[in-house]
Specification:
With about 160 residues, the chain is of the alpha/beta class. Strands 1-6-5-4-3-2 form a six-stranded mixed beta sheet. The mean pLDDT is about 85.
Length: about 160
């Protein structure tokens, strides 16, 4: 979800709720302690220099049960961040404290923002020799002789 999308969604809500991948909700008394731009400048395993930028939201639970972050307040924080950091078109990444700091993507369904799992990936599969998809072999087509052979190209491994 991009910043422009969350602002439009927030304008139609009376309250904000974030749902974790396991279906549980971030407690309603959370605070958004940071909205910022995170830049990751790195070299992948294929030697390619890359730069990624995301808008980062940090959610935090406090013992303050009397205050709730209202949609219009979050829109204001986002708009201020967009002006200062020039980041209106960025995808959102959300940090939330579980057993460690988790990083999530963001989506929306029904009444809740969904914290979606993020996965690591190799960005240079073509340089590493990692096939884009595993070759599928139907083992029933192997003859007894082929199944006992381990010559290159025999399909034994």
């Amino acid at each position: 979800m991009k910043l422009s999308e969350i602002k439009e969604t927030l304008k139609n809500l009376e309250s904000i709720a974030f749902e974790l991948p396991d279906g549980s909700l971030v407690p309603r008394h959370f605070h958004t302690t940071e909205v910022g731009k995170v830049t990751k400048h790195f070299i992948d395993c294929g030697g390619i220099v890359r730069k990624e930028e995301v808008a980062n939201f940090q959610l935090w639970e406090a013992d303050d049960y009397n205050h709730r972050l209202h949609p219009e307040k979050l829109v204001h924080i986002i708009e201020l961040s967009e002006k200062i950091f020039e980041m209106e078109a960025l995808e959102i990444e959300v940090e939330y404290q579980g057993e460690t700091i988790g990083k999530y993507g963001l989506d929306f369904k029904g009444e809740n923002f969904l914290l979606t799992n993020k996965l690591t990936d190799c960005l240079a599969k073509d340089k590493c020799g990692i096939p884009s998809e595993k070759t599928k072999v139907n083992l029933s087509f192997l003859t007894k002789e082929e199944s006992n052979s381990c010559a290159p190209g025999s399909g034994c491994c």
